[in-house]
Specification:
Oligomer: single chain
Organism: Dichomitus squalens
InterPro entries: FAD/NAD-bd_sf (IPR036188), GMC_OxRdtase (IPR012132), GMC_OxRdtase_N (IPR000172)
Largest sheet: 2 strands, parallel
Distance between the termini: 61 Å
Number of domains: 3
Pfam family, one: GMC_oxred_N
Radius of gyration: 21 Å
Shape: extended
Number of helices: 6
Family: Belongs to the GMC oxidoreductase family.
Structural class: alpha+beta
GO molecular function: flavin adenine dinucleotide binding; oxidoreductase activity, acting on CH-OH group of donors
Strand order of the largest sheet: 1-2
């Protein structure tokens, strides 16, 4: 069919060993894009052992100690910097110039990695204040299990819920 790229299962990164075991694999979910949200979605869906998930990602797998430190990994002069440079369409308000655009391509979220994305929970006071304003279920005690789950921690110290601004 015109306009569609045909991709074999080998192009998608499925190992030949797996193909010998099941030459026609099927999946319950196929996620296109292994960026931050695609990886999270795949992780959550695959918590059910009865569910099979395939993630298709154009970028490479990069998992070194430096890639886990956002501000270090975001250095565009680093040999480990996983980005591609695209040229924009001619920009009307820039004298029809084409401009370079840097885009991260890596499993787990190139944009998150090259932009130095950092995460913090916020203070318990802020969440408890939301709940005081009528947002039931948005207090710190309600949300903390989800924070811990998203952080993939095995242990986490109990936060002091009595913090004030």
């Amino acid at each position: 069919m015109a306009g569609f790229l045909e991709v074999s299962i080998y192009d998608a990164g499925v190992s030949k060993t797996l193909m010998k075991e099941d030459p026609s694999p099927t999946y319950d979910y196929i996620i296109v894009g292994g960026g931050t949200s695609g990886a999270v979605l795949a992780s959550r869906l695959s918590e059910d052992p009865a569910v099979s998930v395939l993630v298709l990602e154009k970028g490479q797998v990069v998992d070194t100690w430096i890639t886990r430190i956002p501000l270090l990994f975001a250095n565009p002069t680093s040999k480990n910097f996983v980005s591609v440079r695209w040229m924009s369409a001619p920009q009307t308000h820039a004298d029809n110039r084409t401009l370079p655009m840097v885009r991260g391509e890596v499993l787990g979220g190139g944009g998150s990695r090259i932009n130095g994305a950092l995460y913090t929970r916020g203070t318990p006071y802020d969440y408890n204040r939301w709940e005081e304003l009528g947002n039931v279920g948005w207090g710190y005690n309600d949300l903390e299990p989800y924070f811990v789950k998203s952080e993939n921690t095995l242990t986490h110290p109990v936060a002091d819920k009595k913090l004030t601004p």
